Known about the structure:
The protein has three domains: 121 residues, Rossmann fold, CATH 3.40.50; 143 residues, no CATH class; 57 residues, no CATH class. It is 54% helix and 6% strand. The chain is built from 17 helices and three strands.
Amino acid sequence: MAVLTIGMPRNPSRSEALFFGMLLEAARHGRPDSGTALQRRLRLYHKLAELVERAAGNKLIVFVDEAQRLELEHYERLRDVQDKLERRGVRMFTFLVGQPGILNRKSSFRQSVDTSQIVSRFMVDELRFDGFRAADDLKMSLAAYDTSTFPDGSDWPYTRYFLQRAFDIGFRLEKCCRLAAHRTAAVQAELSHSPVVALAALMSRLIPTVFDERYRFAYAESAVKIDVHTSRDALVREADDMESSVAATLDSVSSTDRVHPINALADVMQIDMATYWKPTQQSYLNHVSKARIIDVVTEAVSLESEAELQGMKKGDAAAGAELRIAETGCCRKC
């Protein structure tokens, strides 16, 4: 199927010619800005039909980003495009991606018979995006960077394009979220019952921020990342005590394998990661290098285990490592 992606600008013009020019540009037409509104409209119909034919199908998927900026005239023109393609045997499906204000526009359109058909065409179902809510959500997103090619037409994934040396020796963004997500969840759970440690963690982040000129370069990198995106009132509604509020904002997921400051909190609260997570082949060992597997087993089990694993292939080493550390849980080097 063919796919067309449109990004609505701030304060978009209601000009018919400019709107169809924008669609032509999105469709990569060679002359998006020339001709009258009617000429641009006709060229767009032809170009979209051509894209669908090249895709060897009869469907066109249209994504409109920042769709809350669409005005009534824009919807009516999209409807005209849909009708024209329908007559050519092409089915057009439109996905509107935007801020919550788009829901207000939907309610407004429903109030009038003249505009209610816009809702039935373009606003049938609502899918709310909540961001990353679980480790698997982050894993799926990072994995896409490890497999999707960039630039177009090359055979290099995004990760290799920006981190070639690391990628070539086995680094993958996907694996960065595995233990980090479990570690964050464990510290959040324990921190919600440790007000003194929560206050210390909060101050370690706030002091370099508030007294930027004095403490930023000395302490900011060693502080745990704490991001609060809600207002104070919303935060109070969601968590009625300080330690829960701080815990809910912690994040230790990183794009590197460096030791993370959150480990200090885990040590202070004497968190046993084995309570929350175990390094199995599926969850961790299959996704790191053989050298890392040996390091983990050496720390968690014994020095003797290193020699036993050195002569194995990576798959066998991962299986052996899982058996050896099954009763010891997780260590910091994971």
